[in-house]
Design goal:
CATH class of chain A: Alpha Beta
Oligomer: heterodimer
Strand content of chain B: 35-45%
Largest sheet of chain A: 9 strands, mixed
Structural class of chain A: alpha/beta
Strand order of the largest sheet of chain A: 3-2-4-7-1-8-11-10-9
Number of strands of chain A: 11
Bound molecules: zinc ion
Radius of gyration of chain A: 19 Å
Shape of chain B: globular
CATH architecture of chain A: 3-Layer(aba) Sandwich
Chain lengths: 382, 128
Amino acid sequence: MSRASVVGVGETEYTKRSPRTALQHQLEASLTAIADAGLTPGDVDGVIPIGITGAPVEEYVADFGITDLRFSAVVPHGGASAVGALQLAGAAIAAGLCSTVLVPFGRNTSSGAKAGQRIHTMPQFHFVSEYERPAGNIAPAQLYAPMARRHMELYGTTSEQFGEIAVSTREHALLNGRGLMTRPITLADHQASRMITDPFRLLDCSLESDGGAAFVVTSPERARDLAQTPVDLLGSAMGHPDSPSSITQRPDLTRVGVAKAAALAFEAAGVTHADIDVAEIYDCFTYIVLCQLEDLGFCAKGEGGPFVEGGRLRLGGELPTNTHGGLLSQSHMLAVNHVVELVRQLRGTAGAAQVAGAETGLVTGYGDMGDGGVAILRKGTS
Amino acid sequence: MTEPEDIAAPYWRGAAEGVLVLQRCGNCGVVRHYPRAICSACQSELVEPQQADGRGTVHSWTVTHHAFDPRLADDLPYTLVTVDMREGVRVLGRLDGDTAPAIDLPVRITFAPGLDGTPVPHFVVEAP
Ligand SMILES: [Zn+2]
């Protein structure tokens, strides 16, 4: 039985070099999500801001005229925070701590530092900053590349298989229509794209982008009285890799945090892999999608390469994945946009990228150096 | 009163002299890296520095073609290797020379100045 439902989603326009601040993006996306739910800003009594750009909760209290904020928290796991916030919102609501939780995110990257500089301001990356950055190991692409390279060497995984993920994700971004990327790409384009840090080419890497995204969670009972078809949280779990603060020291470079969370989430949800109609998988890099598909149990460790071939992840395939274009081709909204898209898919309002008859779906997060989150959602009855 | 010594000080003293110094638990003997305040096997604070043998084998790598720091533009492309040291810990550093990296490639550690002059591990391929 579900203990929480997502009832509102919102996004801003996704751009680069936006003149609007991170806070403006957060507030705009939040107001859109609250209106989408048929609520008013003052109805919010819980806030879980996402990411290091998250505005203090006090900003929301003041700007939204919240007279009785009962719950606030921060989930400190980078790209896994959105799924973590969804889980935490559900737990807080089920515990009776509050009734309506807003999960906002917004960023303006163009006015600030790039990812390769941002992470070195974050305490969880301190081993990288102290011991590895001076050698030239600076950006997330470089931290994760040895994970992908090891997978390729052990299992024969190929750059073309990474490319298939880039191509299908781009196709979906074009169907979604909100994406920063507006031109189709081919596998040849992927293979011709500039090598950034082997094995990652430019088209294996996600976007730096500006904008905001948000969602609203409430109780299943209250959800039935609101504006939209509710989308119920069936089950969720968080998991962390061994040696979470140093990839270099990690015993198994080819596994990430969702490997520990997946079975718990499926068990809590009471569904199997065959029940998943659509998946929104954290895609900071193409390989990270492939790795998580294995760790989630959609295929065995080492079989991710062949698994993604043959259009399996495309619309109409067996497991349509990142139907909005993801972080690779829509916008890097730290997977809050993944939650937004999954909710739209399960409402049946995902437009040209709608998976026909989608009722049950899965969303993951991947944060910092491998923190993971999995949530399984289902279309509710209104 | 003296300040407690930084747990990483023995590592950095060794690095400046060109040798890898690891932490060995003074209670259970487990060797660890990077430097930490307590042993993850027994949670003891007791620790002894241990100079590493210096030899290891390549676990994985990346070849970087993009200057994430403008000071590295002249180094491109450069290879970063993750190395399994004989003591059971890993070290990340530069791979020197022309040999292509490969899993289990035998290497030996040296140190050389990196960004800001910080001594960083470099690896040279060992003759088989
Ligand atoms: Zn010990």
